[in-house]
């Protein structure tokens, strides 16, 4: 899978921009706050119809404008697929092959990608919500139906929590039971999909991590299901607690993911270097997992992370990705990038202007 080109209209600081990409390696060089990350964010937006940096859509639209558009052409096994996402105050419209997709779940997966940004280095020690988002975003790309069930689950969760806000004496046990059933229908699907995903990802990550550590460390991924047994029974048992707290206390919205090296929790006992190696192992593992699931290698976005990794990890990252993925790298300097291939496209970014260096 390759992204041949992209066009931006009123996206962040870009009024109009059109770029053609190298099929293997694209390097964006420039100082901070010049617009490098905005390019990768636009690619992410084209793939997933949302940003990896903000949940506030208005921040994506250029100042004083009311609408943005990102379009591009993806090269896949079956041919070229034009993609387009438009965002305004009424919402977003996603098109594949010039046809509007009524559900975003039907659009996502047209362009699969892996994003590795500085915040991903906190995957191990960050809040559980970071790891849940990681599972949701990656699963959504390879299993579009997962997004559908996730939306339905969150909608049912919102309705149940809203009902729990009522005075406890006014809550009807029968209605609460109906809300429980709706939550379980979609929640059990999320749990099953996450369990399968983490099992497969763990197998790939274990192999990658063993290679990166020369066999000295064994990495294990553990899916920490909040629901230990029967979901419906767990909800019923907590009715009194949920009425008291005015929120749903059990379900996949409270799941977590644990990383273990040689039987020790990396978040609690691992060094910073180990935590970064784990994050790197997981991201590299996704490359082959997505290929297994879709038959296409994803594109790889590396947003200012090379300076965060030591020389050995940089080489591991580049050597593992090149030849498989089309890769996009943003950096402030070439000083820390060693052994880069000569066949690449280099773009200089300065004050929102991009020039291509041949």
From TrEMBL:
CDD domains on file: ABC_RecF
GO molecular function list: ATP binding; single-stranded DNA binding
Biological processes per GO annotation: DNA replication; DNA synthesis involved in DNA repair; double-strand break repair; SOS response
Gene Ontology cellular component list: cytoplasm
Sequence positions that bind ATP: 30-37
Keyword Nucleus among UniProt keywords: no
Gene3D superfamilies tied to this protein: P-loop containing nucleotide triphosphate hydrolases, RecF/RecN/SMC, N-terminal domain
Localization in the cell: Cytoplasm
Domain of life: Bacteria
Alphabetical list of NCBIfam families matching this protein: recf (TIGR00611)
HAMAP family hit by this protein: RecF
Function statement: The RecF protein is involved in DNA metabolism; it is required for DNA replication and normal SOS inducibility. RecF binds preferentially to single-stranded, linear DNA. It also seems to bind ATP.
Family: Belongs to the RecF family.
Name used for this protein in its record: DNA replication and repair protein RecF
Organism: Lactococcus hircilactis
């Amino acid at each position: 899978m390759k992204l041949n080109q992209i066009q931006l209209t009123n996206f962040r600081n870009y009024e109009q921009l059109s770029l053609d990409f190298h099929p293997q390696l694209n390097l964006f060089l420039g100082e901070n706050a010049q617009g490098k990350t905005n390019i990768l964010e636009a690619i992410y937006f084209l793939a997933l119809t949302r940003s990896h940096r903000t949940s506030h859509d208005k921040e994506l639209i250029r100042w004083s404008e009311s609408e943005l558009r990102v379009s591009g052409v993806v090269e896949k096994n079956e041919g070229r697929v034009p993609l387009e996402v438009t965002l305004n105050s009424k919402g977003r419209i996603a098109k594949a092959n010039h046809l509007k997709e009524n559900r975003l779940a039907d659009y996502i997966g047209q362009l699969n990608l892996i994003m590795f940004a500085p915040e991903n280095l906190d995957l191990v020690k960050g809040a559980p919500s970071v790891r849940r988002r990681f599972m949701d975003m990656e699963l959504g790309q390879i299993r579009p139906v997962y997004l559908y069930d996730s939306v339905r689950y969150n909608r049912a969760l919102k309705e149940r929590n809203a009902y729990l806000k009522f005075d406890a004496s006014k809550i009807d046990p029968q209605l609460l039971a109906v809300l429980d059933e709706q939550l379980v229908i979609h929640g059990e699907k999320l749990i099953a999909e996450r369990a399968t995903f983490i099992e497969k990802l763990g197998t790939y990550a274990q192999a990658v991590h063993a290679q990166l550590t020369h066999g000295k460390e064994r990495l294990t991924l553990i899916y920490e299901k909040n629901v230990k047994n029967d979901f419906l029974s767990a909800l019923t048992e907590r009715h009194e607690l949920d009425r008291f707290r005015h929120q749903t206390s059990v379900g996949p919205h409270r799941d977590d993911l644990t990383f273990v090296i040689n039987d020790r929790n990396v978040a609690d006992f691992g060094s910073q270097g180990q935590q970064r190696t784990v994050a790197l192992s997981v991201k590299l593992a996704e490359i082959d997992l997505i290929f297994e699931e879709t038959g296409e290698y994803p594109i790889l976005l590396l947003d200012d992370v090379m300076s965060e990794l030591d020389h050995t990890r940089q080489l591991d990252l580049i050597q593992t990705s090149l030849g498989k993925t089309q890769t996009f790298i943003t950096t402030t300097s070439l000083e820390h990038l060693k052994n880069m291939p000569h066949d690449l496209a280099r773009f200089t970014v300065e004050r929102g202007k991009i020039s291509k260096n041949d």
